[in-house]
Structures are given as C-alpha cells and as structure tokens.
Amino acid sequence: EVGASVLLLRACLVLLAFPIYLLSFLGVWEPFCRKVFFPFLLDKIVTVHDKKSKKHKEELFSNLPDFRRPSGELRLLEIGTGSGSNFQFYPPGCKVTCSDINPHFQEGLTKNMKKNQHLHYEQFLVAAGEDLHQVPSGSMDAVVCTLVLCSVQSVSSTLREVLRVLRPGGAFYFLEHVAAEHSSWKYFWQQVCYPTWKLVFAGCCLDRELWKDLEAAKFSELKVQHIRLALPWTPIEPHIVGYGVK
C-alpha cells in the first residue's frame, strides 16, 4: 500500500508537471509525446544509458553468433528498436527485423542504419510487443528487447510472442530497468515518481519486477544478472541483464 508521504510527494510532482497533466486531459499530450517529445527525450537518455551500459551489452551480445543456424544464417528480431542503438553489437551479416509501436524514430534509425552497414535490414514493422502476428512462428534465431518491457501493456503476452517467433534453441536477450529493493530509498522514490514518470515517458512503469515474469515464461535455460547503472537524478538505477533459451 502507498504511504502518506508518497502520496504527498506525488501530489507535489503533479503540481510541478501540471501543464502536462492538463495537455493530457485535453488529449493533446499523447500525440505530441509520441511524435516529438518522446523520440527527442529518448535519444538524449539513450545516449547516456548507452555509455553506462556499453560493457554490459558487449558482454551480453558476445555469444549471439552461437545461435546461428547450420547454414550460418542469423535472423534477429528487435522489439522496440527505437533509433537502433543496439545495431553496433550485432555480428556481421546478421539479418535484422526491426519493430516498434512508435513509428516516429525514423531520423535516429536512419542514422544508425547508415553507421552499421555490416547488417542486413530485412523490414521495419510498426507493432506492439504483444502482437507480432506479421512475424512467422519459429522464424527467428534471436529476439532482442532493451528498455522496452517497462512500457508494454502486458509483459507475459510479450514474452509469449517472443517464445512463439523464436525457433527451438533460439535465444531472447534483454536489458531492462526494474523495481528496486522494497526497503530502499530508491524504491520509495520510484513510488513517488511513478504516475508522473509514466505520463511523461510514454507509459514507462518504474516498479516492474521483470525477473519474475521471465522466470514464469518457461525458457529452457535462463540467465539473469541484477546490475546497477548509475544514472544520476533518475529512479531507474536497478537493471537486469541476460538471456533465455527456448
């Protein structure tokens, strides 16, 4: 249950962000956020996050080539590609299908595709993680998802789709921010920021315990590591990183 001090501080944040709440009430904020504000803001945050997470991502994706087919082909689907900041970590010749629920990342995406010409880009799908019906079952060797499971409508439905599109023996890679220890100050501030953060950051939830969803998803093998990424002045320090094999 939410304590009185959390509710009081939440109310202060609502006052500070009142123009955004008003625009949201008038139905103006969401389209503006999706088209302009969120792609711009995410670009800035991802730049900082990428610096902090680079070594973790290099380590995470280092075994991607192990999941190639006998033919040597590696087909990869990225859910929530955004502007494509993960492309640099994928092995040469990898066939990439990009998907995102928000089609307004074109500028950053084009820039990163030009930078990473060691990859083959197959297609771009405007799709939610919970509904990847354009992707045939068992057609992917790897699925990647970074900083996306915080904002999908349903984590369990998204993981069901991940397992459906993966071939047996294929791998799902993730790096996500998660809820802090419940007894910590970090968790207290996650609770305070939750409603305003979710509104400003296009549905991003601060308190998801995603390792529990991953454990419930029935991967044949699952490696989850809890790490901290120091992102000053943000409530998203605790992360999990790892992969699951179908």
Automatic annotation (TrEMBL):
<protein>
    <submittedName>
        <fullName>MET7A protein</fullName>
    </submittedName>
</protein>
<keyword id="KW-0472">Membrane</keyword>
<dbReference type="GO" id="GO:0008757">
    <property type="term" value="F:S-adenosylmethionine-dependent methyltransferase activity"/>
</dbReference>
<feature type="transmembrane region" description="Helical">
    <location>
        <begin position="7"/>
        <end position="29"/>
    </location>
</feature>
<dbReference type="Pfam" id="PF08241">
    <property type="entry name" value="Methyltransf_11"/>
</dbReference>
<dbReference type="InterPro" id="IPR029063">
    <property type="entry name" value="SAM-dependent_MTases_sf"/>
</dbReference>
<keyword id="KW-1133">Transmembrane helix</keyword>
<dbReference type="InterPro" id="IPR052356">
    <property type="entry name" value="Thiol_S-MT"/>
</dbReference>
<keyword id="KW-0812">Transmembrane</keyword>
<feature type="domain" description="Methyltransferase type 11">
    <location>
        <begin position="77"/>
        <end position="174"/>
    </location>
</feature>
<dbReference type="InterPro" id="IPR013216">
    <property type="entry name" value="Methyltransf_11"/>
</dbReference>
